[in-house]
Specification:
This protein is α/β, with parallel strands linked by helices. It contains 11 helices and 16 strands. A hairpin with a 2-residue loop joins strand 1 and strand 2 (26-29). Bound molecules: pyridoxal-5'-phosphate.
Amino acid sequence: MPGGNTRTVLHYDPFPLTWARGDGAVLEDIDGHRYVDFLGEHSAGLYGHSNPIILDAIRTALADGIVLGGPNRYEADLAAALQQRFPSLQLLRFCNSGTEANLFAIQTARTATKRNKVMVFDGGYHGGVFYFRQGGIPINLPLDWVIAPYNDTERALELIRQHREDLAAILIEPMLGSAGCLPADPAFLLALRQAATENDVILIFDEVMTSRLSSGGLQGALGITPDMTTLGKYLGGGLSFGAFGGRRDLMQRFDPERADAWPHAGTFNNNVLSMAAGLAGLTQIYTSDAAATLNAKGDRLRDGINAIAKRHGAALTATGRGSFIGLHFCAGSVTRPQDLDPSEEPKRKMLHKLMHLDFIADGLYMARRGYLALMLPIDDAEIDHFLGVTEEFLSSRGQVMA
Ligand SMILES: Cc1ncc(COP(=O)(O)O)c(C=O)c1O
């Protein structure tokens, strides 16, 4: 593997920790050190490590065989449970990852509208070949992208007007995830909703991350209905998972009984273990109450970090919503990627490294870039511990940050 690595986001210097096991909110590395896990596998680990309900569901499914080569007893129930939580999913299909979900949603929109272009947003991340940091990465899929600035209604509407003849879809994370947990202004999303309707453009919400922000995702919390939605991460119970769906008139073209059906393939689309684990997680664990409690914990942690930073007069800002937190070494509010001064990036990177390693030394694990995705088993004492270590970090490293 190049650089000994098969997933770039897991790489950091001098070398990433290698995990031996996880239990609840605790990870243990192969040297036997234990850490409280504030990363929660980039949000796929929502249920906590080795959750007994998930393990039971997997064991039960496993006992009946793994690759059966036909529909199984779980997939329709999982589809129904998802539809109940996300009513905009009038019809949906499963796939294997969030990347695939976005690929199929984009192609659904392009094929249905017979248009080519797709609007995405600066800083948006929709998978390994859909990454729009600073104009996009070299291995992005070569589609006709229109890249708009996030949370800039005027510019986005201008670009929609300019490209409307050939604009198939607007693909947006209702909270920028990889770019640092920056929630969309609801007025911005509403303006996109309206412009999409007026111009027959398909509005796709990528809720691969944000679907956990209420029992009905961010679309439910904000009351804004997209034409299509993509899902992934924890909804497979911690196993590989993706789903895309939305308006019946678009998705019904995947009905294999139709003469004009679009085929949608994927050997593992309905893989038994993801279907069974996902169903158990959504119906038995992540209830509306559980979602509310988890997101309130995240709010407490974010508010706590910001209060400590303020008290220290430190240039540290925690962004996000609910159980997602992005840490930024800058003073004042950050609402879009361009709020972070590019000339300060080397310094911010150095501080993120220092923070990451200091927190590891204190037994707390998060992403190098300062990203936290809380898991259900994280308790109040662990949140207080994180706040205590933040206080200590700002005291001991204040001079480096100045
Ligand atoms: C918003 C968003 N969309 C899509 C993806 C891609 O999902 P996957 O890694 O399952 O391909 C991710 C993954 O981090 C994501 O955060």
